[in-house]
Amino acid sequence: MTQPATTPRHVADRYVDAVCDLDPIVATQLGTRPGDDRLPDTSPAGLAAEAELIRATLAELDRVLAADPSLDDDPVERRCARLLRERLTAALDLHEAGEDLRAVSNLFSPVHSIRQVFSMMPTRTPEDWAVLARRLARVPAAYRGYRESLSAGAAQGLFAAPRQVHTVVGQLDEWLAGPYFAGLVAAGPDEVRAELDAAAAAADAAVAAVRDFLRDTYAPQAEGTPDAVGRERYARFARSWNGSDLGTGRGLEEAYAWGWAEHQRILAEQRLEAEKVLPGATPMEAMRWLTEHGEAVEGVEPVRQRLQAMMDTAIEALDGVHFDIAGPVRQVEAMIAPPGSAAAPYYTRPTQDFSRPGRTWLPTLGRERFPLWDLVSTWYHEGVPGHHLQLAQWAYVSGDLSSYQTSLGSVGANVEGWALYAERLMDELGFLTDPGARLGYLDAQQMRAVRVVVDIGMHLELPIPDDAEGAVAAHRGELWTPELARAFFGENCGRDADFLDSELVRYLGMPGQAISYKLGERAWLAGREAAQQARGADFDLKAWHMAALSQGSLGLDDLAAELAQL
User: Fold this and answer.
1) Which of 23, 324, 505, 522 is most exposed by smallest CB count within 10 Å?
2) Region of residue 402 (phi > 0: left; psi between -120 and 50: alpha; otherwise: beta)
3) Does the structure show a pLDDT above 70 at 531?
4) Is residue 432 domain-resident?
5) Is 362 helix (H, G, I), strand (E, B) or coil?
6) Where are the alpha helices (DSSP H) in 8-43?
7) Matching PANTHER family, A to Z (predicted)?
């Protein structure tokens, strides 16, 4: 008989194990069950089982804390308990509001996670491929369950907006052009060739079935669903991504005003940097010049190699000086994202045992030429010292905390805030002295400030500020719309049109996620400043970095305060 949990960490670790039972994709991400060939039940019954597990875990946490109030005196147990309660409560709020019955977006949806898990599976041996084939054979059932959940949402009048549906249909068209799963198994061994080909054909057919359902059945039903989710829904999502109830009081309006002030501050700095790139040019003109005439890499494999070298160089320069990077954490791989991905680069974390390393992914969008001015800071964000150093360090110290604090308990504002802080840190340390690369860094900062403005502005339908310039100047005082947001974004971000279009769809489909970067960075900077003031001359930045990266996940309600005590 299983013994009752006695600490919040016991409760949290048991929750992770139970989640892996219900959602084997999580187990693959963590690397804890390498032979697991299952996929999650994405039907309403599967979603209900996940919610019931959350309720049971919250009840168990209450029991443990009531039985031993002294647990609150242990900082690790206190952090774990607060994180677990906040994360699970936020997830349950979304479930009870029916949000998992209309989960359609161009990133992080069940459609995408079911495909992405195959890129995380080992393929070194025939047995590895046999496991992959068995899991691949389960794709049709997983996608049927997803369609059932969307249909259940439709029956309750819960729909994703048409913009999201049409975007995902386009992505699925691109997957089918390969087709994706047939291409995935092409390198498999002869021993399981028949199983791989049959499973891949069925999986690609299941992708087509999802595409047809979304295009022909769901999209007509969803017509008229607004892009903006409104204050109540936005507050739920914002809490999920940020670990803070920003919907209370004027929290969202304050974040909106702060984001606008950051936009203006960064714009002034961009104008100064643009002069160094091209005298007399505006920031946008300077960035266009860099795109056309600045340093660039020709070819997909050469740019992958360049990004790998950039991360390797950063590790060598930072280790022992600004960070203590453990051996397993030094392993990180630059990868090319598969066709049909969203336009933004991304990172996938290592398994807990580092059998699969952390990986950065570059979507090529059909390009063969890659200007570097906007990739340098981006790879400090995605790789080193950004996402990789944090999330790989979490895996490294997971035995000292709980697997929950270093995996499922991730809070977007903590993770994205650290990655944006990492870009700023590299600027502070003198790694961005080239005017082009530094303008790229400022462009990345500006993009995150604009995200705060347009994400909150569109979903809450707030008025455009009275000092707005450019394309939206004539619309001062009017409410933000996706069209006005796209025009504003286009004037304040040096990325190409396809990227900007993809980003706008992302913000509309993942409310509250886009604000987590700048709000998280603000908390990291506030925590560092408070720690510096408290320690004075004794403050050690390297020691602070390692302590900060070794405490696991925290939400915005706790992050700055906990960082200040390190």
Assistant:
1) 324
2) beta
3) yes
4) yes
5) strand
6) 8-22, 24-30
7) DUF885 DOMAIN-CONTAINING PROTEIN, GLR0591 PROTEIN
Whole-angstrom CA distances from 154 to 101, 148, 222, 483 are 8, 10, 8, 27
Quick check: is 534 in a domain? Answer: no
How many independent structural domains does the chain possess?
2
Q: Rounded to the nearest 10 degrees, how much is the dihedral formed by the CA atoms of 239, 240, 242, 243?
A: 80
374 vs 563: CA distance, rounded Å: 30
C-alpha closest to that of 354 among 397, 324, 383: 397
Q: Decide if 335 contacts 362 (C-beta within 8 A).
A: yes
Q: What is the pTM of this model?
A: 0.95
Please, where are the H alpha helices in 117-250? 126-136, 139-155, 162-177, 180-184, 193-212, 219-222, 230-242
- Residue with token string 């369950």: 145
Phi, psi dihedral angles at 482 (to 5 degrees): -60, -35
Burial of 96 (0-12, 13-18, 19+ CB in 10 A): exposed
Residues 214 and 261 in one domain: no
pLDDT at 1: 57
What amino acid occupies position 224? G
Hey, what are 190's tokens?
A: 């002869």
Token pair 């995996």: residue: 407
> Three-class SS of residue 327?
helix
- Are the CB atoms for 394 and 328 separated by under 8 Å? no
Q: Are residues 246 and 226 in the same domain?
A: no
Per-residue pLDDT of 371-396, as tens digits, reads 999 999 999 999 999 999 999 999 99
Q: Is 33 left (phi over 0), alpha (psi -120 to 50) or beta?
A: beta
Question: Looking at the structure, do residues 197 and 245 belong to the same domain, yes or no?
Answer: no
Contact 227, 507 (CB under 8 A): no
pLDDT at 146 over 60: yes
Residue 187: the pLDDT is 95
Residue 101 resides in a domain: yes
Q: What does the CA dihedral 514, 519, 520, 526 come to, rounded to 10 degrees?
A: 170
Residue given tokens 């774990």 in the structure block:
80
Residue 66, number of CB atoms within 10 A of its CB: 8
Give the structural domain span for 138. 8-236
Is 260's pLDDT higher than 70?
Answer: yes
Q: Give the C-alpha separation, 158 to 218, whole Å.
A: 11
Length of the chain: 566
Per-residue pLDDT tens over the stretch 53-110? 999 999 999 999 999 999 999 999 999 999 999 999 999 999 999 999 999 999 889 9
β-strand pairing of 296-298 with 346-348: unpaired
**Same domain flag for 109 and 189:** yes
Question: Are 505 and 490 contacting, i.e. CB atoms less than 8 angstroms apart?
Answer: no
Phi, psi of 332 (to 5 degrees): -150, 140
Structure tokens belonging to residue 486: 């796209």
Residue appearing with tokens 């992505």: 171
